Amino acid sequence: MKMMRALCAVALAGLAFTASASAATEGWLDDYDKALAQAKAEKKLLFVLFTASDTKACMKQATEVFAPQQFKDYAAKNLVLLEVDFPRKNEKSSAERARNTDLNARFGGRGFPVIVLLDSDEKEQTRFVGYGGGGAKDMIAKLELFRK
Fold this sequence. Notes:
By secondary structure, this protein is of the alpha+beta class. 51% of the residues lie in helices and 17% in strands.
């Protein structure tokens, strides 16, 4: 009986880890050209997240910033979300890795996470390097400074 409980606990922990690691993918695009076209059409800012989704800092950011409904609601009204992912377990195809590497060379940085906010003309409005906490409310307050 104890063994069964332990197995169930491990399975539930695994599900929670998987959910937090992929929290950023819901509602996010992974194609830069499509995201930019959508930002232009909808007159929204392009929010580009450079992440290594299976690292502690990126998972924490996904859980605290991107998963809460407050951020999802804000993003739906004001942003086009683009995720450029570099998982350590390398689950991407060679074409995806090449595309992501090119975007990282153009806009990203050396570490993860990095957020780059672009207008529809591809002009950088701001960037946030690393994740120091603050959650969804803090991120929304920062983003509001750049909305027109």
